[in-house]
Amino acid sequence: MITFDGVTKRYPDGTVAVDSLNLDIPDGKIMVLVGPSGCGKTTTLRMINRLVEPSAGRVLLDGRDVADANPSRLRRGIGYVIQQTGLFPHRTVEDNIATVPMLTGRKKADARARARELMELVGLDPPTMARRYPHQLSGGQQQRVGVARALAADPPVLLMDEPFSAVDPIVRAALQDELIGLQARLHKTVVLVTHDVEEAIKVGDLVAVFRPGGRLAQVDSPERLLGAPADDYVRDFVGFDRGIRRLSFFRAVSLDLATDSVLPAATTLADAITVGKRAGEPWLLVVGGDRKPLGWAAVADLESGPPDATLAGADLAPVGHTFRPEADSLRAALDATLLSRTERAVGVDDGGQVLGTTSYERLRDAIRAAEEAADRAADPVGGGR
Amino acid sequence: MSFLTFAWDWLKSPQQWQGPDGIPSRVLQHLAYSGLSLLIATLIAVPLGLLIGHYGRGGFAVVNVTNIWRAIPTLGLLILVVVLLGLGVLAWLIPLVALAIPPILVNTYEGVAGVDPELKDAARGMGMTSWQVLWKVEVPVAVPLIMLGLRTGAIFVVATATIAAEIGVGGLGRYIIDGLASNNYGEVAGGAAVIVVLALLIQLVFTGLRRLVVPTGLRLQARSSR
Amino acid sequence: MLRIRLAGDADMQWSWIPQNWSIIWPYTLDNLLLGLVPPLIGLVIALPVGIACVARRWLYPPVLSLSSAIYALPSLALFVVLIAYTGLGNLTVIIPLTLFSLCVLIPNVVDGLRSVSEPVRQAATAMGFTQVRRLVQVELPLAVPVVIAGLRVAVVSSISLASLGQLIGVSSLGYFFIDGLQRDFPTEIYVGLALTILLAVLCDVILVVSRALLTPWARGRRIGPSPRLAWPVAGR
Q1: CA A316 to CA A283: how far, in whole Å?
Q2: pLDDT tens across A22-67, in order?
Q3: CB contact under 8 A, A80 and C127
């Protein structure tokens, strides 16, 4: 547990970077500090490992004031990852990762073995990468080395300052996913600073929104941050599309999928037209014998064909996007639906077999129900705000 | 007795300050040799450096030639030329000019070649011709380095002109060479003192000149990035 | 005035070299010594001074001004100033050349240390390096390429400047220039020139190779001497 107890940081020129901050960061969670530039989030982070000393108040790590610790020893027990990686250009990847273990007196061979373990953990291939120098790596790889280096001494606390901001969006998304995966295994206490709300909501168990002047605006779960922003500042900061982004937290399993418009390829055109008209559906999903989707048949087009032919010979529009109701969110279902030409997406199970199809109406109903349920659940807690 | 006592004793004698061997005429000689050599070297090296830097060809050769240049012993070159060509204007002019060119050339080249490509792109994007890019963007940005090259060239030429006394040329080096030959340390010390003062003055002049010609924006930028 | 030498008169006489090997060798060694000792002393002084200039920023501008003033002085003038104190010995040449080496090395040490990027410095601190440890294990190793670039300039310049010592009687390859002039004998001058340049190039190559060996991480990157004094000492 990291505790900020009335912490203020005022610089000699009078600027207040952090203003009487009270914040608890629970063990084993990812706490994201987010806010616009100059809101004091990085200063807050750097007060944990004493790269910055508070002007007033205390920072406690497991109940002990960090100001009482020897700074070097304190820092060796806290992992630190920064945007520009800060990798040592003169050391190989494995020696970079082995830095802290060697500082704390472990044998070189030992420390290197540990470094190679960590390389695998963060998805770097030790035989090809261990002896390279940082400048021979891509941005994403460098950032992975940075994370491995921070984890090398197995510190319970990991501080990350804009760790993924310098890489392109695709790599960033991959690194974020890896961080979530790593955390599921390692259960570190992670404090991550970012200016990107999207990232905060994606990786955070808890999100602390800072406002300019170093004051805390709201600390909450990402879901509640989107659902119940504390004030206009937070509402604006999380963005006008927060309603849509909130859908990421609702599981698509609540979605009522249409099954009557799903037909086997052996169905005759005449039967298909009847089904389509009865269901009021302009599109029918055609599935194979294994119940995997083959494509969409347009009811209007079927009427021009011989009635006793089967759907197997009909012209089909591509399946478009699929999603897995068991695992994906309503957001994924909505995206899949919006992006498909037929304005319908296909829900499939883990084996790829069709469970049913979506439509705008079905999505709308599911979203409304999920929001109501979430607000009901949130109310007793959020009532005081 | 210390150097300063020797130098002072020699300098305070009025006879050092008059006649063709007096300090004023030696200083003028020294400045004339140095000035002429530096002028010719500048006229050759600056345009060449600008062109090489602007067109980006031959830079590798410039850098390597100048590296070898550093290894050439000036005394050896001066003596070689005088032994091959005999004593005359060319005997000191050729080595002085040849040896002053490299620092000016490489600084001019580096100054122009080092201009931020984005800056040149922006200039071209605004419709400047190749020549306009050179004159309006590259040269002003390169001026600090060019001035540094000129200063190095000047320091170098003043020092080499001193050594040139060994091959029988006039200038302030005469006092040292003649004094050494006749075991007159007073003359040696006095000559050295005058040369030291002259060298420091020239250094000052170039510092002032640099302030005069370097564009204000660049100077402010350099100060704030310090 | 122009004297055109008869062809043949200016030619190299190769037989002179083996006949005079016994004097060529000692002068070459003396010149090498005068070329190497000053940069090495300079390095020993420049490292602590450079470190101090980085740690105390206000120190650097005056140090830089002083060294650029020294650097403007002709070496011959400095030699003869020192004669009053150190006589006509090696020290009279070594001291000015050491000063000139300092003029190149101090800015290079400072620039080398400053070339360590802020994130790297910060990361080292955040991982628990003490200041001394950070200096020794991170900042100094990273400064090596820039320092060696300065050392190359200092060594090559010192080797070529050492020949001037002969003007005050300090033994060096300059002997062959002065003797060649007095005897009007070009071969001797060719040999002196060639040996000086050869020594300089040889030492330069050794430094380039040692840089590659010492700094495997910097291979393939161009690192030059400090631009501030890219053209110091040589050729006074």
Answers
A1: 10
A2: 999 999 999 999 988 889 999 999 999 999 999 999 999 999 999 9
A3: yes
Could you tell me the CATH number of the domain that includes residue A277?
Answer: 3.10.580.10
A222 and A329 inside one domain: no
CATH number of C22-229: 1.10.3720.10
Asked if residue A295 lies in contact with residue A318, where contact means CB atoms within 8 angstroms, the answer is: yes
> C interface mutation test: which of B2, B8, B72, B75 has the most C CBs within 10 A?
B75
Q: What is the mean pLDDT of residues C72-76?
A: 89
Residue A26 maps to which CATH number?
3.40.50.300
Same domain, A22 and A46: yes
- The single-letter code of the amino acid at B146 is I
Q: Is the minimum CB–CB distance between C126 and chain A shorter than 8 Å?
A: yes
pTM: 0.78
User: A39 lies in a domain?
Assistant: yes
Shortest distance, CA A343 to any CA of chain C (angstroms) = 49
Q: Which of A218, A249, A280 is the last residue in one of the domains?
A: A249
Chain C: residue whose CA lies nearest to B6: C84
CB-based contact, C186 to chain B, within 8 Å: yes
Q: What tens digit of pLDDT does each residue of A317-375 get?
A: 888 888 999 888 888 898 888 888 888 999 999 888 999 999 888 888 888 888 888 77
Interface ipTM above 0.90: no
Report CB contact under 8 Å: B196, C73: yes
Q: Which of C189, C207, C222 is most worth mutating to test chain B (most B CB atoms within 10 A of its CB)?
A: C189
Question: What's the whole-number mean pLDDT along residues A281-310?
Answer: 88
Please tell me whether residues A327 and A219 are part of one structural domain. Answer: no
Place C231 in a pLDDT band, splitting at 50, 70 and 90: very low
- Which domains occur in chain B, in start order? 3-224 (1.10.3720.10)
Residues A226-259 pLDDT 10s:
888 899 999 888 876 777 778 888 888 888 898 8
Q: Tell me the nearest-neighbour CA distance from B126 into chain C, angstroms.
A: 31
Q: Is B150 exposed, middle or buried (CB count within 10 Å of its CB: 0-12, 13-18, 19+)?
A: buried
Looking at the domain assignment, is residue A89 inside a domain? Answer: yes
SS3 C153: helix
- Which of A37, A38, A49, A32 lies closest to A15, judged by CA? A38
> Number of structural domains, chain A?
2
CA dihedral of B210, B213, B219, B222, whole degrees rounded to 10: -50
What's residue A380's pLDDT? 47
A79 and A29 co-located in one domain: yes
**H/E run at residue C130:** none
CB atoms within 10 A of CB C121: 17
Rounded mean pLDDT, A71-100: 92
Q: What domain range is A319 assigned to?
A: 253-367
User: Are both A125 and A179 inside the same structural domain?
Assistant: yes
Contacts of C138 in chain A (CB under 8 A): 88, 90
Residue A381 inside a domain? The answer is no
Can you give the pLDDT at residue B1? 59
Cβ B99 vs Cβ B72: under 8 Å = yes
Interface contact flag, C127 A88, Cβ < 8 Å: no
Residue ranges of C 17-46 with Cβ closer than 8 A to chain B: none
Q: pLDDT by residue (tens digit) across A1-29?
A: 999 999 999 999 989 999 999 999 999 99
Element (H, E) at C229: none
Candidates A86, A91, A100; nearest CB to C128: A100
Taking the Cβ of residue C205 and every Cβ of chain B, the question of whether any pair is shorter than 8 Å is answered with: no
What is the chain C residue with the closest CA to B152? C231
Q: Specify if A384 maps to a domain.
A: no
> Does C220 touch chain A if contact means CB atoms closer than 8 Å?
no
Mean pLDDT of B2-29: 85
Residue B226: band (very low, low, confident or very high) from pLDDT cuts 50, 70, 90: very low
- DSSP, residue by residue, C90-124: HHHHHHHHHHHHHHHHHHHHHHHHHTS-HHHHHHH
Beta strands in chain C (DSSP E): none
CB contact under 8 A, A76 and C123: no
